[in-house]
Each structure stands twice: as structure tokens, then as C-alpha cells.
Design a protein that fits this description.
The structure is a homodimer of 151-residue chains. Chain A has 151 residues and is α+β, with helices and mostly antiparallel strands. Chain A is built from three helices and eight strands. Chain A is 14% helix and 32% strand. At the A-B interface, strand 1, strand 2, strand 5, strand 7 and strand 8 of A face strand 1, strand 2, strand 5, strand 7 and strand 8 of B. Strand 7 of chain A pairs antiparallel with strand 5 of chain B. Chains A, B: GO terms for molecular function: magnesium ion binding; phosphoribosyl-AMP cyclohydrolase activity; phosphoribosyl-ATP diphosphatase activity; zinc ion binding. Chains A, B: Catalyzes the hydrolysis of the adenine ring of phosphoribosyl-AMP.
Chain lengths: 151, 151
């Protein structure tokens, strides 16, 4: 495995229409990753990858990210057991975003709250003209206190 | 309509389990938006929103973003006619990402290359142990030169 990707070409057509994987990492060295369930297409989470995380994800077939909160490489599911087996990786037009289609192991839960998806609240308008968040009724698939330990 | 959102609470439980919409905009004042087709769930694009773009999206039901390349508010489809009617807006656990479920008008194309989705290339391993990008066979739904003008 090479441990770096080639620099993005300055030629826009080559970047957008070419066959070369040249991720456009941002100033922090990251690209954004959208993660969906390969089965039903549900959006499970949004995360970030540095070059090493993307390289490891391609190489091992298990999703790796860069945790911005913990400032370290993060093999998804290393604590919870909810690993992500990657079935497909896609790049967007200007190669600064990655789409992962995955099968989740363990509890089939991706969110640290124990839910299947991190997107468990929708925006709804209130009678008073404002907005609020309404949670899905679906109960969590695991107890975070039990899986991660109480702080 | 108020033109600002409340600051995110310092209490993690309130941020993650509460009903208050308190987006966690980054240092550049942006949250990331994942956009899917409300019909079949296909991931169409990834973009960014500042407070005004999110507010306008909620208020008008049409997706607005902040264009980082053009450094200005961007009503999606203002040039191409491929607007996005928003059917649902979701927030992720820590409220720094938004999921929009949309119906695309016009050519039913979201990408500036004329394709339905920006994620039209998948990563595949090559016989030599490397990787390359393979484009979907689906032809573009519009001609960018015609829609945006050459250059």
C-alpha cells in the first residue's frame, strides 16, 4: 500500500471526469464522509477521514475515520463492536467528499447514543411559528452506558 | 422569522436529546448538509449551510446553501432550474450536520456536471494493487455548457 494519494490535478476536467483517485483534503487534511446502509440506503452518519483513514478503509474494507473530537484515528466500532464493512466507496465530483455504503455489524447501530442512525431528529414547525426537533420513536439498539461505560 | 438560532447548550444531553434546534456552526459559520432524494433515498450531494441558508431553507422549503467556492449564499437551482423542494430536514446527534430529503425540479439533476448525483464514480481496485475511479454509465441529464454557458 502506498501511504499517500497523488495531489489533485489543477485541471478541472481531469479532477471531475478522470479515473484517478486524488482526494481534495482540506486545510486540516480531511475529507467529509457520508455513510449509508448498503441495504436500504439510510443515511447513518457523517464523519471525516484523513489520508490514512481513507487508505485503511480501502485496504481493510472496514471504515476508519479521523476523530476530530479525540484528535486521533478511529476504527469505527472498536469499542461498541458496531463496525462498518464497506461495500462501496464513491467520490463526489470535486473529490472532497466520500460516500461509503456499509453493512453495520454488532447491534446494527451507528450512533454513539445507541440509535441506528445519527439523524434521529427531524425539524418541525411549531404552531407559534418557530421550529423544534422531534425524535423518532424507535428505541436505541444498545445502552451507551453499558457499552462505553459511565463517565 | 428570527434570523439567528440559539447557541448550542453546553449540556451534552440537552444538545443530543433535546428538542431545541441549536446548530453547531463551525469556525467558518457552517454546518455540513447531506442531500438525498426523498423518493429513493439516493445521496445526491454534499454542501454547506450558514445560519441564513438554513433559515431560508426552513422558511421557503427550497434548499439554500453557502457556496464556499463563490463565497456567497446559493439558492440551489437558481441557474440550472434544478431546485430542491425540501420534504424533510434532520439534524444529527451533535447538531453539526443536516440531512435534507428533497425532490429535485428541472432536469432531476443535482450535479453541475449534469448528472443526477455528484457521487457518480466508485473506487475500484486495479489488478496491479492500486485503485482507480470508475464512472457510472448513466449519461448526464443536461449539458452544462448549454445550461451554465461555456466557461
Amino acid at each position: 500500500m502506498t501511504d499517500t494519494f497523488s495531489a489533485p490535478p489543477s485541471d478541472k476536467a481531469r479532477l471531475e471526469e478522470g479515473s484517478e483517485l486524488t482526494p481534495r483534503f482540506d486545510a486540516a487534511g480531511l475529507v467529509t464522509a457520508v455513510v449509508t446502509d448498503a441495504g436500504d440506503g439510510a443515511v447513518l452518519m457523517l464523519a471525516h477521514m484523513n489520508a490514512e483513514a481513507l487508505q485503511l478503509t480501502i485496504e481493510t474494507g472496514l471504515a476508519h475515520y479521523w476523530s476530530r473530537s479525540r484528535d486521533r484515528l478511529w476504527k469505527k466500532g472498536e469499542t461498541s463492536g458496531n463496525m462498518q464493512r464497506v461495500e462501496e466507496i464513491r467520490l463526489d465530483c470535486d473529490q472532497d467528499a466520500v460516500l461509503l455504503k456499509v453493512r453495520v455489524t454488532g447491534h446494527d447501530a451507528t450512533c454513539h447514543t445507541g440509535r441506528r442512525s445519527c439523524f434521529y431528529r427531524r425539524v418541525e414547525k411549531t404552531a407559534g411559528g418557530g421550529v423544534h426537533l422531534v425524535s423518532d420513536a424507535e428505541p436505541p439498539k444498545f445502552d451507551p452506558d453499558q457499552v462505553y461505560g459511565k463517565n
